[in-house]
Design brief:
With 897 residues, the protein is mostly beta strands. The protein has nine domains: 2-180, Single-stranded right-handed beta-helix, Pectin lyase-like (Pectate Lyase C-like, 3 Solenoid), CATH 2.160.20.10; 221-296, Immunoglobulins (Immunoglobulin-like); 305-380, Sandwich (Immunoglobulin-like); 391-466, Immunoglobulins (Immunoglobulin-like, Sandwich); 492-552, Immunoglobulin-like (Sandwich); 562-637, Immunoglobulins (Immunoglobulin-like, Sandwich); 648-723, Immunoglobulin-like; 734-809, Sandwich (Immunoglobulin-like); and more. A seven-stranded parallel beta sheet has the order 1-4-7-10-13-16-19, with no helix packed on it. The protein has a seven-stranded parallel beta sheet with strand order 3-6-9-12-15-18-22. Strands 2-5-8-11-14-17 form a six-stranded parallel beta sheet, with no helix packed on it. Strand 42 and strand 43 (426-427) form a beta hairpin. Residues 217-300, 301-384, 387-470, 473-556, 558-641, 644-727, 730-813, 816-897 form the PKD domain. It holds the Pfam family PKD_4.
Length: 897
């Protein structure tokens, strides 16, 4: 055993074996500071490395194995760093006992029989992160302020992942938290925290897992609405898991999008099947929701309402509630007493007795409906009684000043009070406090009222006030501020007791005042004694405060320090100006060089024209002002953005209704926003919208295109001409993609019929059909399928058939694609390595060759290398389509113990 009791000692390169008693250690430090223990081998001892009452020591890169009691022990230690050590096959790996402020990082702690790490309840503020724990147990007591992860940081972690955070928590049988944790985004950190630290209030919020390639996404989506009246705007939201990088939406009405979260407008009634295909580098997945969006033609509202209460005495407050269905957008109430409201749920007060008929008209885009409820509200006469005024007081006599608390004792529920205290003052408070300052007899009057009327009570000579008891006042005062630079403005406040009536101040600089609370300016530096004499009829009293006011030297003018950012750029250029002047300025005046100014300390200013601008700033304090000028400080070049020139075209300009028109923006100048008016009261902000005209007529179309430089409008009068319903039957036509492939085969059919069909009937040849315009269909069985489309309008129908149009072959299985790794990849013998397979292609069997003559058929085996050397790993994985083999040369490196 090597025992040290000294500071600044370095122990390196020794091998300590066989100090096997429970109290023996390979290396033992007691009361040592700033020592280094590194690159040592401690085997078969009672304890490997034992630090007692030591501070600031570094224990790193040591191999500690086979020790009967502990690998590394800290006892009553603080501020030590334990890093890069291997502690394996000990009874206990790392033990932190009554030790604070230590850092444990980068340690390999494996196969220890009792526990991997123990932090006792008296150990505080220790940081444990980026360690590899692979043991049957850990024991963490509470302590105070211990942490088991750092903030997620880019960098190679202990299991070769790309981020450093917490620790790897494994078990030798592969069932540990980190062995089985889910990592959907492949960042090498578990998607959930490790909360199973035994008997602990702590968690590892960023536990490590073995790095893996990201999986193919699992497609899913939602929408803000799934039903409504046309036109129905739907916001679709991607809810796929697994880090999708591309999206392909089919909205079921023949339109598509590759946005992640698109907005789509359904312009025709019907039920629509929505499909999302989400993909990334690992593959793709499709989610189909049949008849997900239901679009209906708007109906006029079905009006209903109720009120509460429907009867009572006047004044009667009634709350009305609209129960109309059909999504009304406007309401018109008639309350039957000549008053009205357009609120959805109004409140109304009936002030007179009577029976009142209530009528509600509700309106939506489809029209309006009215419901009338005759004699619905019944109001009777008021039951309210006039109040009876009455009052009392806490006292009725005393010396001035006399404070009296008056208490209202009226009956009959008054809601207003009017007091007359007999000395010319009044109050509307229910229970006021009044101060009588002059001797005399005072008559008090109280009038109380409610909706039914009012009454008054008068108490003559109710309050008797005698003269003030003569006591001399006691002088007292304060001031603010009591120190500062000249000129110093000081406000003095009298706090004397005993009701003084006169004040005499001496400010200590030869000036005085008879005000109660004067303000005085000291213009010369020095310490000033202040005196206050207060007087009443009983006499006077004086208070003196020596050297109470301290006045320093005169303040200096400010020294300017200012700048702006950015100093150059294209117009419009917004510049943030910053003042950091010294001398405590109180006012600022900026001149921006383009005729504009500001009095803010740190203004923002936008230059709208090209040019070089001289900046001037004047800052002011009590001592004066200072001005700084920066010539040609801001340089603004011409704007790089030109206002767009609006323009557009359409695929058709005339036709029979319903007429579907695709508008195309042809504006120049890079617009970033579009506002279309289709001439029939509808609008769109889509760049290239599709609009359906449902009424015959001529329509003027307007497009306003906008960017940062401004906006421009193009108007085409009577641009779209819509005639009545076509008298020609449609000519059916369609296409599909793909038309061949393995089952299951998803095929998108596109209607290209002419003649404005309004209905479609598909037969897919496998016993299924659809009435959508452009449906999507999945063939699940191999075969050749004949597809038929019948398109109809009011003039009739037409059918087209494509024989053996879709060819579906049997499913083709793919051989698996190997993805595997092992951890750790290097260390001293005996080295236990955990191998992990994450191959794609649904393999059904595995064959590992570990390079030392041993093999395994487990998917995720564990193997121990007992001899030093470099080992080549080979894995063969098999599924129904065949097998694939991957070889990793010299993948595992084992050094001698």
């Amino acid at each position: 055993m090597l025992a040290v009791q000294a500071d600044n000692v370095k122990i390196s390169g020794i091998k300590a074996i066989g100090a096997s008693g429970s109290s023996y250690s390979g290396i033992y430090l007691s009361g040592c500071n700033n020592c280094v223990i590194e690159n040592n081998k401690l085997m078969s001892n009672g304890r490997g490395i034992y630090l007692v009452s030591s501070k600031g020591c570094t224990v790193s890169k040591n191999t500690i194995t086979g020790n009967g009691y502990y690998g590394i022990v800290l006892g009553s230690c603080s501020g030590n760093t334990i890093s890069g050590n291997t502690a394996s096959d000990d009874a206990r790996g790392i033990h932190v006992g009554s030790s604070d402020d230590n850092i444990l990082s980068g340690n390999m702690v494996t196969s220890n029989s009792a526990y991997g790490i123990y932090v006792c309840g008296l150990s505080d503020r220790n940081l444990v992160y980026n360690n590899y724990f692979n043991n049957t147990d850990v024991t963490i007591k509470s302590g105070i302020g211990n942490s088991y992860n750092i903030t997620k940081t880019a960098g190679k972690n202990i299991v070769s992942g790309t981020y450093i955070g917490g620790n790897y928590w494994g078990k030798p049988d592969g069932t540990g938290f980190s062995d089985t944790a889910v990592d959907r985004d492949g960042d090498g950190i578990s998607d959930s925290a490790y909360t199973s630290i035994t008997s602990s209030i702590y968690s590892d919020y960023l536990p490590l897992v073995n790095p893996s390639n990201p999986a193919a996404p699992d497609a899913d989506f939602s929408s803000n609405v799934t039903s409504g009246n046309l036109p129905l705007n739907v916001l679709f939201t991607d809810a796929s898991t697994g880090t999708a990088t591309a999206w392909n939406w089919s909205f079921g009405d023949g339109t598509y999008s590759t946005l992640k979260n698109p907005v789509h407008t359904y312009s025709a009634a019907g039920n629509y099947t929505v499909k999302l295909t989400a993909s990334n580098a690992a593959g793709n997945d499709t989610k189909i929701k049949e008849n997900y969006i239901k679009v209906t033609t708007p109906q006029t509202p079905a009006v209903n309402f109720w009120g509460s209460p429907v009867s009572g005495n006047a004044p009667l407050n009634v709350t009305f509630k609209d129960n109309t269905t059909g999504s009304p957008t406007a309401w018109n109430w008639s309350f039957g007493d000549g008053t009205y409201s357009t609120d959805q749920n109004p409140k109304h007060t009936y002030s007179a007795a009577g029976n009142y008929t209530v009528k509600l008209t509700a309106t939506n885009a489809a029209g309006s409906n009215t419901v009338t409820k005759s004699n619905y509200i019944k109001v009777t006469g008021s039951s309210l009684q006039t109040p009876i005024a009455s009052f009392s007081s806490n006292i009725t006599s005393g010396s001035a000043p006399l404070n009296v608390l008056f208490t209202d004792t009226s009956t009959g529920t008054p809601i207003a009070w009017n007091w007359n205290f007999g000395d010319g003052t009044n109050s509307a408070v229910q229970n006021p406090v009044h101060a009588y300052s002059t001797a005399g007899n005072y008559t008090v009057v109280l009038t109380v009222s409610n909706a039914a009327g009012n009454t008054t009570v008068t108490k003559s000579n109710y309050i008797t006030v005698t003269g003030t008891v003569a006591q001399k006042p006691v002088a007292a005062f304060s001031a603010s501020p009591t120190s500062g630079n000249a000129p110093l403005n000081v406000t003095f406040t009298d706090s004397s007791t005993g009701s003084p009536v006169a004040w005499n101040w001496n400010f200590g600089d030869g000036t005085s005042s008879t005000e109660k609370n004067p303000a005085h300016t000291y213009s010369t530096a020095g310490n000033y004694t202040v005196t206050l004499t207060v007087t009443n009829a009983a006499g006077s009293n004086t208070a003196t405060k020596s050297s109470y006011i301290s006045v320093g030297t005169t303040a200096q003018k400010p020294v300017i320090n200012c700048w702006g950012s950015p100093r150059s750029g294209n117009a419009p250029l917004t510049v943030t100006f910053k003042d950091d002047s010294s001398g405590s300025p109180t006012a600022w005046n900026w001149s921006f060089g383009d005729g504009t100014t500001s009095t803010l300390q740190n203004p923002k200013h936008t230059y709208s024209a090209a040019g070089s601008y001289t900046i001037k700033l004047t800052v002011t304090n009590a001592a004066g002002n200072t001005t700084a000028t920066k010539n040609n400080y801001i340089t603004v070049t011409g704007t790089s953005v030109q206002m767009p020139i609006a323009g557009f075209s359409s695929n058709v300009t005339s036709g029979n209704l319903p007429l579907s028109v695709s508008f195309t923006d042809t504006s120049t100048g890079t617009p970033t926003a579009w506002n279309w008016s289709f001439g029939d009261g509808t609008y769109s902000t889509v760049k290239n919208p599709v609009h359906i005209y449902s009424t015959a007529g001529s329509y003027t179309v307007t497009l306003t295109a906008t960017n940062a430089a401004g906006s421009n409008t193009a108007t085409k009068s009577n641009y779209i001409t819509v005639a009545g319903t076509s008298s020609q039957k449609p000519v059916a036509s369609f296409s599909a993609s793909p038309t061949s492939g393995n089952a299951p085969l998803g095929v998108s059919f596109t209607d290209s019929s002419t003649g404005s069909p309004t209905a479609w009937s598909w037969n897919f040849g496998d016993g299924t059909s659809s009435t959508q315009k452009s449906p999507t269909h999945t063939y699940s069985t191999a075969g050749n399928y004949t597809v038929t489309l019948t398109a109809s309008n009011t003039a009739g129908s037409n059918t087209v058939t494509k024989t053996n149009y879709i060819t579906v072959t049997g499913t083709t299985a793919q051989k698996p694609v190997i993805n595997c790794w092992g951890s750790p990849r290097s260390g001293t013998a005996p080295l236990t390595v955990y191998f992990k397979d994450s191959s794609s292609g649904s393999p059904t069997s595995w064959n590992w060759s570990f390079g030392d003559g041993t093999t395994s058929t487990l998917q995720n085996p564990k193997h121990t290398y007992s001899a030093a050397g470099s080992y080549t790993i080979k894995l063969t994985v098999t599924n129904a389509a065949g097998s694939t083999t991957a070889t990793k040369n010299n993948y595992i490196v084992v050094s001698k113990a």
